[in-house]
């Protein structure tokens, strides 16, 4: 599927344009502080992992970006929408520019695959004839066209998540938010979902994916924004290579591969060091024992 290109009338430096900004954003629920003075931004075409343990505030950040919640203090800017100025009637326009994928899929289980995907276009008033074409195109792109007539409840978890992704991108959003999209999937299927998100990003869509799996995200070399107890505790960009919004560069793939290899080498080095240390202690104990038996 051809993914969305950005406004052709924009200037040539569109890649550097910030599409999401949080400025000293805090979010309070009654006496509970879900987010505390969080500031970061996401540029056009970036892929960002949002990591942290359960309760760190990852979902709260995504709700602020969707403007499902408004910050108690500070400001959130998503494209041309400012949390301090946005009107309730503007929110549906914002949601057309932001696709969302959830951990629990949130599909209509008694409806077919194509009906689930089509629903996202029906609510924004796309013509029925165009919906049919768009659904076929996006299902082919995620590899599920052959299952378009099946009920959603008959699909595997990985297939259901791919339907959810198809539904999220059919309106060609500029931003895709993925809230723990691999949380209910096994490692092999999780990798397929992440690869699909990378393909979407490579076509120009900014992607923010939340996860609690620190070790998993290290291998990809993408930017990592870390949260803990509602506060921003890290923003690591050291392995990421700048890329054009239309195509993921070979250099970037090499960086991700090199980082994964480096992690494996580091682990192997630790294992060898531990084994050598154990052997040295065993040899030392053996020598001391022999010396004790021989006596003075």
Summary tags:
296 residues; alpha/beta; Rossmann fold; 2 domains; 6-stranded mixed beta sheet; 4-stranded antiparallel beta sheet; 22% strand; globular
Could you characterize what this model shows?
This protein is α/β, with parallel strands linked by helices and 296 residues long. The chain folds into two domains: 16-246, 3-Layer(aba) Sandwich (Rossmann fold), CATH 3.40.50.300; 249-296. Helix content is 40%, strand content 22%. The protein is built from eight helices and ten strands. It has a six-stranded mixed sheet, sandwiched between helices. Strand 4 and strand 5 (81-82) form a beta hairpin. The radius of gyration is 24 Å and the shape is globular. Residues 1-16 and 240-260 have low confidence and may be disordered.
**Annotated CATH homologous superfamily of the largest domain:** P-loop containing nucleotide triphosphate hydrolases
How many structural domains does the protein architecture include? 2
Radius of gyration: 24 Å
CATH architecture of the largest domain: 3-Layer(aba) Sandwich
Q: Give the beta-strand count.
A: 10
Overall pLDDT: 82
Report the uncertain regions: 1-16, 240-260
Give the overall silhouette: globular
Under CATH at level 1, the class of the largest domain stands as Alpha Beta
Largest beta-sheet characterization: 6 strands, mixed
- How far do the termini sit from each other? 83 Å
* Sequence of secondary-structure elements: EEEHEEHEHHHEHEHEEH
Major sheet strand order:
6-7-8-3-9-10
Please report the number of helical segments.
8
Question: Structural class from helices and strands?
Answer: alpha/beta
Strand content: 15-25%
Determine the fraction of residues in helical runs and give it as a percent range: 40-55%
**Which fold name corresponds to the CATH topology of the largest domain?**
Rossmann fold
């Amino acid at each position: 599927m051809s993914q969305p290109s950005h406004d052709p009338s924009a200037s040539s430096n569109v890649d550097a344009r910030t599409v999401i900004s949080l400025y000293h954003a805090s979010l309070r629920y009654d006496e509970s502080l879900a987010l505390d003075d969080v500031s970061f931004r996401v540029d056009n075409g970036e892929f960002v992992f949002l990591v942290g343990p359960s309760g760190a505030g990852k979902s709260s950040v995504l709700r602020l970006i969707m403007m499902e919640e408004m910050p108690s203090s500070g400001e959130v800017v998503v494209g041309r929408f400012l949390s301090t100025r946005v009107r309730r009637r503007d929110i549906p326009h914002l949601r057309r520019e932001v696709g969302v994928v959830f951990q629990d899929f949130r599909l209509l289980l008694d409806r077919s695959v194509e009906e689930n995907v089509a629903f996202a276009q029906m609510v924004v008033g796309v013509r029925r004839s165009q919906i049919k074409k768009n659904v076929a195109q996006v299902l082919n792109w995620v590899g599920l066209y052959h299952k378009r007539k099946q009920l959603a409840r008959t699909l595997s978890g990985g297939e259901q998540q791919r339907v959810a992704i198809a539904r999220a991108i059919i309106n060609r959003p500029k931003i895709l938010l993925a809230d723990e999209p691999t949380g209910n999937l096994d490692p092999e299927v999780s990798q397929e979902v992440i690869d699909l998100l990378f393909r979407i990003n490579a076509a120009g869509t900014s992607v923010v994916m939340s996860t609690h799996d620190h070790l998993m995200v290290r291998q990809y070399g993408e930017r990592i924004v870390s949260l803990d107890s509602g506060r921003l505790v890290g923003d690591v960009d050291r392995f990421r290579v700048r890329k054009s919004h239309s195509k993921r560069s070979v250099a970037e793939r090499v960086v991700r591969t090199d980082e994964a290899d480096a992690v494996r080498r580091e682990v192997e080095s630790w294992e060898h060091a531990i084994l050598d240390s154990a052997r040295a202690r065993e040899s030392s104990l053996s020598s001391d024992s022999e010396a004790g038996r021989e006596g003075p």
